[in-house]
Fold:
Amino acid sequence: MNSIYLPENCEYLHEVLGAYSFPETLIGASRYGYGHINDTFCVICQPREGDGVRFILQRLSRAAFPATEQVMENFYGITEHLRKKIAEEGGDPERETLSVVRTVDGKPYYTDSNGGIWRLMPFVKDTFPCQSATPELFEASARSFGKFQKRLKDYPAHTLFETIPHFHDTEDRYAKFEAALAADKLGRAAQVQAEVAFVKARKADCSVALQALREGKLPLRVTHNDTKLNNILFDKLTGEGICVIDLDTTMPGLSINDFGDSIRFGANHSAEDEKDLSKVNFDIDLFEAYTRGFLQGAEGGLTEAELEYLPWGARLMTLECGIRFLTDYLDGDNYFHTAYEGQNLDRCRTQFKLVQDMEQQFDAMAAVVRKYA
Ligand code: ADP
Ligand code: GN1
Ligand code: MG
Structure:
């Protein structure tokens, strides 16, 4: 390989690029995106004629995914299923779902000499990601996630691996928080007493959705489980959500959690790690835009009970995510990527502020759902 541009401090990247065959001249790679989990790079090539060609190269997080091979098996099954559905609907499977580029040895992923698992994907053309939405984009993302769920309705759920066991098991998240608090590895517990009290006061809430599942009120479906706004690519021309990405946590789950995780991230106007909590406010108008889009995308596929529990989905995903950030902070920031010390605590605080807002506006949220159900 001739000399190419590579980011600093990234071992194995050169080795990995050598495992693939690229069109014409490989220019280099740079870090890309705002994901908290995988290491993502954009790889750029310049063919002899025409425009540059881009790829997304990712090293899967070992901290998040204990069995990375299983993640790739799920990825293959899900994207093949989606490809068929999209083709039946007259869509473009090359743009509306992800695919992998095989290594020169014909493998769907590459294992580096340190055991790291990498995948290369075509960059979905003429799309853009989004970190904070206008109401129109937020509604478009909702239609996409609703449609994603609809397209996977007949997917054989038992064939999916549980890539992260107990991922949205909020009771288990609570137990892990208590364990991290008791261990207090870095002596950080003393400074987070207010946050600890906030969680403890909501222990019973952690059981609400799981209890409804146990009682058979809520059905288990194939769900995405990480429906952040930046896990959708939007079409540059139309602004429609064109491709649902970050499929690594797609597995059996609750529809209300897919709804709720989007609300957690997108129904406000602040960054997830905003320090000034006066800027962090739940926006019921954005909630309404998302509800409208999600129900439209799901095309009547939700049961009465699911509709009733949608506001709980929002509250619980926000509480759970705050608990996870706090747990990781207590544990020494091993799971979520952080750019500075205390970032996980800042993230936790924004989530708890949003939970409080949602608690206060819970009746209004239920009324919005009833309006579109
Ligand atoms: P993480 O699990 O770390 O969040 P993602 O799979 O979401 O990783 O990827 C991180 C970012 O990379 C996304 O938010 C998106 O902007 C970009 N991205 C990922 N896959 C593609 C793709 N195939 N085409 C274009 N952009 C992509
Ligand atoms: C992570 O991978 P990413 O950045 O889209 C996390 C989600 C959290 C989110 C919080 C596999 O999402 O569960 O809600 O951060 N993904 C995983 O921003 O743990
Ligand atoms: Mg992501």
Summary: The chain has twelve helices and ten strands.
